[in-house]
Predict the 3D structure of the following.
Amino acid sequence: MAKYKLRQFAELETFPNVYHHLQTQKEVENFAMRGLWLKDNFKNNHPLVLELGCGKGEYTTAMAMAFKDKNFIGVDLKGNRLWTGAKIALAQNLHNAAFLRTRIENIVTAFAPNEVDEIWITFPDPQPQEKRIKKRLTSLPFLKRYQQILKPGGVVHLKTDSSLLYEFTMELLNENSFEILLHTNNLYAELPGFLGPHHDLLFSTKTHYEKKFSAMGFSINYIRFKIN
Ligand SMILES: C[S@@+](CC[C@H](N)C(=O)[O-])C[C@H]1O[C@@H](n2cnc3c(N)ncnc32)[C@H](O)[C@@H]1O
């Protein structure tokens, strides 16, 4: 591993706003923070919002700055990407932001039933190959996991450059009679009012992958839905 990455990983271990949930199966299953995020980390009763596959955590940090009355956790497997968001959150004193290094497959062992109010899925890998459909972060096995940790009425947001993932998710939501609150296959062509004043961040916050794919001419798709 490159020296720079090794330094990042060593530093990540010392960050007070980063939790690791990637050890043995037994340790994963007995994760100390499950059910206790508000009490032990945030020390308040504010709603808890997750950004899944957060990469550098652009939404986690932008939302934490904009909404001081909510708590945010960026979730990703890759430590060097989390490092960027965690470093920004520390520098900006964002006490309402934390990061969790885990596999999203194990999310139900990191959060208790009804612990989460809202989920953002930002530019996930569309996993285009047929044999990898179950790896898509909006496939039914993943939605079932989110159902377990989300409060009734909890909202899920998907933002993606992939029309394949957008179509796939729309079809799946319709097939399972999940409630679609908003959807567009060209976010920036819609009037901002369409998405409501609270979601200006949808337009102003562009993640690393969004910038990359927008520059290549991809339109941005967005779905807001409920699964509980
Ligand atoms: C395409 S990147 C998007 C990153 C960021 N949201 C953005 O828009 O720039 C997908 C991210 O999801 C993470 N990821 C993919 N599958 C995952 C899984 N099963 N568990 C945890 N993280 C995962 C990857 O490590 C990667 O950082």
